[in-house]
Amino acid sequence: MDDITPLPAGVRSRRIDGVNGLDMHILEAGGDEPERPLVLLLHGFPELAYSWRKVLPALAAAGYHAVAPDQRGYGRTTGWQADYDGDLRPFAYLNLVRDALALVFALGRREVACLVGHDFGSPVSAAAALIRPDVFTRVVLMSAPFAGPPSLVPAAAAGEDVHAALAALSRPRKHYQWYYSTPAAAADMHDPPQGLHDFLRAYYHMKSADWPANQPYELAAWNAEELAKLPTYYVMERDRTMPETVAPEMPGAAAVAACAWLNEAEMAVYAAAFAETGFQGGLNWYRCNTGGLNAADMTLYSGRRIDIPSLFIAGTSDWGIHQSPGALAAMQARACSDMRGCHLIEGAGHWVQQERAAEVSEALLAFLDDTGAA
Q1: 306: helix, strand or coil
Q2: Could you write out the DSSP letters of every residue in 18-76?
Q3: Are 40 and 112 in contact (CB under 8 A)?
Q4: Full DSSP string of 160-186
């Protein structure tokens, strides 16, 4: 891959070798002297360390050493294999937490002032907070609420097969995470009919506040009737791929030119990265969920809450906060014992740290200040 451009002033790119078997690429801002508290930022799908480019300088200016890695399966981080028929366990939560812990140690630290996770980085951050609260002393979850680890108590008899019920609707549907778990998904997205750049542009647009149809609300239950209310990038038409799903919502030239949070030079960074790596690495994270591997592992922490100070941030136009019915309420009521706030930022959709970087940075710094991180 070529050098990452453009990067904001003060943001550096480098590689750290030998991080839990990875040669890990990071972006960072602020000096790495021990007196600067460390803030670690974990991206989601389909994103990169680059997704934090607008937040890193604000943290550095406030006296923190801010670090964002390309996570396992993404970007310039190497040392992972993502064949569809390969071993999934490296992409499960426990090993992803091990990646984060190994990076902290490789940076010469033994404590993180704050772990911040967006999208799929959010459940990984929640798992880290459960597993190593001695290292990860504060946590901020973004866009994906954490309802707590799965129960060891056997559930009541199962109701409908939600996937069969979705397929049987008069307008047949399928859940995107199960589509992402199919052998075809990675190729669908890596070589889409409209080209990779336009696929990603439409995908990012459709999940942002720029798409006017994003008017989320709480769903009543995890059943086909309720899930079918989600936009088609979450509960898809049964016979469409993801590129086919987002293609009709591709923004026009004027809208692209007006998109201040993701201009064409920035968009090109994502397109180049995923052209190089493909999507299977990121999709394997979903397969650990849909196949039950993460749930089985996380029952080790059944009944345990996140007891370190925590915060939740999302955009008001983000359906992601409601795609798992009841999760947002469960996070605030039960899963986190020291939750300091739930910030829903106006004018942001799913890519909140890019769409409203200043507001996200302000919320992070206020949380760090209020909890005595500095």
Answers
A1: strand
A2: EETTEEEEEEEES---TTS-EEEEE--TT--GGGGTTTHHHHHHTT-EEEEEPPTTSTT
A3: yes
A4: --HHHHHHTSSS-EEEHHHHHTSTTHH
The fourth-level CATH superfamily of domain 12-152+291-370 is: Alpha/Beta hydrolase fold, catalytic domain (3.40.50.1820)
User: Would you call 83 a catalytic residue per the annotation?
Assistant: no
Helix, coil or strand: residue 311: strand
Single out the residue of 174, 204, 197 nearest to residue 315, CA to CA. Answer: 204
Neighbours of 128 (CB within 10 A): 27
Distance between CA atoms of 273 and 269, rounded to whole angstroms? Answer: 6
Residue from 139, 135, 113 nearest 125 by CA: 139
CA atoms of 277 and 310, how far apart (whole Å)? 33
Give the residue extent of every domain in the chain.
Answer: 12-152+291-370, 162-282
Distance CA 172, CA 139 (A): 39
pLDDT at 1: 45
Q: Which residue has the tokens 């190593």?
A: 132
Distance CA 352, CA 328 (A): 17
Is there a catalytic annotation at residue 350?
Answer: yes
- The answer, as to whether pTM is greater than 0.85, is yes
pLDDT value for 157: 58
- Grouping H, G, I as helix, E, B as strand and the rest as coil, residue 110 is coil
Q: Which of 119, 198, 210, 297 is catalytic?
A: 119
Q: Which residues of the chain are under the pLDDT cut of 50?
A: 1-2
E strand intervals along the chain: 12-19, 22-29, 38-42, 65-69, 114-118, 139-142, 173-175, 235-237, 310-315, 339-345
| pLDDT of res. 59 | 98
Q: How do beta strands 339-345 and 310-315 pair?
A: parallel
Q: Which pLDDT score, from 0 to 100, does residue 3 have?
A: 66
